[in-house]
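Data deposition worksheet. Section B asks for the primary sequence of the deposited chain exactly as it was used as input, without tags or linkers unless they were present during the calculation. Section C holds the resulting structure in token form. Section D is free text for depositor observations; keep each observation to a single sentence. Incomplete worksheets are returned to the depositor.
Section A, Depositor: J.P.
Section B:
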Amino acid sequence: MLLASNRKLSSGAAHELRTPAGARLRELRESRGLTQRQLAHMVGLETYSIIAQLESGYGRIPPERHAALAQALGLAEPEALTRLLSDAGHRPARGSRAASTGR
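Section C:
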């Protein structure tokens, strides 16, 4: 999935779970009229290629960037995490806000 996880998965299995979430991220970004570069800047990421990787089902966004991602996409943080994870059938990592609130 897009977010850090405490589950150990093979790279193929992880990619399979992350792909639908990446597509959802792209939909949300495009619905806000944002480019990958703009979203990366808003989230505080050094390069837009991280967003491209996430949308392609690779990579993860650090937990400390979850709130910024949610804000950039115009969603409440727990809602953003739930939406991005729901398509992939994956749970947020321990220590993420959604995990600590039970969402």
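Section D:
The longest helix spans residues 11-31.
Residues 11-101 form a domain with the 434 Repressor (Amino-terminal Domain) fold (CATH 1.10.260.40).
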